[in-house]
Write a structure and sequence with these properties.
The chain has one domain. With about 170 residues, it is mainly α. The protein contains 8 helices and no strands. The relative contact order is 0.15.
Length: about 170
């Protein structure tokens, strides 16, 4: 369970098991100002409010800033949903099922529980790194945003059908 002495190594490991560095918003805020403008316009959010530096940072998206899972984990004194005695709760199940970038939550939370957050962060990066150039891509970058390699990363290769179906609906 919660270990007072173990600090989460950085702000890129979300309570729910998402890897923040592979988020379209995180990538836009930290590397691609034009992408950030487009995403912000889609949500009618000011660009400055659309900047996110990770789920555990002080600067989060409006959506992530009001995350019920983060508040729940804090209230329970745990670092990740996978540590909860009610895991997986109905809220987390609905969250996981809603979008394709969340497909891997159960595996992520299991791996965090098994090897710890620091090791998981080292491993998960490879799921989103372009095999050609190493650029971190989001689950919605079907081709690498830097070199154009297709698929952009292992996550997209593994979940391409679900991602494409989701993108067609939008």
């Amino acid at each position: 369970m919660h270990r007072e002495t173990e600090k989460i190594p950085n702000e890129l490991a979300a309570v729910c098991g998402l890897y923040c560095a592979a988020c379209s918003w995180f990538i836009a805020a930290n590397e691609d100002p034009e992408r950030l403008k487009r995403l912000a316009a889609q949500r009618n959010w000011p660009v400055e409010e659309s900047r996110c530096h990770g789920c555990r940072s002080e600067k989060r998206l409006p959506y992530c800033g009001t995350c019920g899972m983060s508040a729940c984990a804090a209230q329970r004194g745990i670092d990740f949903c996978g540590e909860c005695e009610e895991y997986p709760c109905e809220d987390l199940k609905r969250f996981q099922a809603a979008m394709p970038h969340r497909i891997g939550l159960w595996a992520n939370l299991g791996r965090i529980r098994s090897v710890g957050c620091g090791q998981w962060l080292e491993e998960i990066r490879e799921n989103y790194a372009c095999p050609q150039c190493g650029t971190i891509n989001s689950a919605y970058d079907l081709t690498c945003r830097k070199c154009g390699k297709e698929p952009s990363c292992r996550y997209v290769a593994d979940h391409r059908q679900a991602i494409e179906q989701y993108l067609k609906k939008r």
